[in-house]
Amino acid sequence: MTAHKRQQLAEVLAEVRTLVANPNNDFAWSSWVDVADALGELDQLSAALAAGQVAHAEIRLIFAPTGPLQELSVSSGWSDAYQRLAQRVDALLCGFCR
User: Fold this and answer.
1) What percent of the chain has pLDDT over 70?
2) Helix locations, 1-98, DSSP H
3) Whole-prediction pTM
4) Does the N terminus or the C terminus of the chain have fewer Cβ atoms within 10 A?
């Protein structure tokens, strides 16, 4: 993965982190227990990305249909934003899906 794509993926994760950090989010349908759990996982993924150890499978998993981000976004009212971000992630990781 190029440095440019890593930077773009880091930007997506930062946008997701902002959405996930909203105190009004409903984690009932997400696999995350609460906001701290979700942010912890996002922060770990961001740190791995910054260190050049991109966890493609883990990033795909959190963005997967019925994955934790989609479930959180639907129950919290930001599914349109999630969809746009998921499409960006798919485009960035498309070379790794085979």
Assistant:
1) 96
2) 3-20, 35-50, 56-63, 68-76, 79-93
3) 0.90
4) C
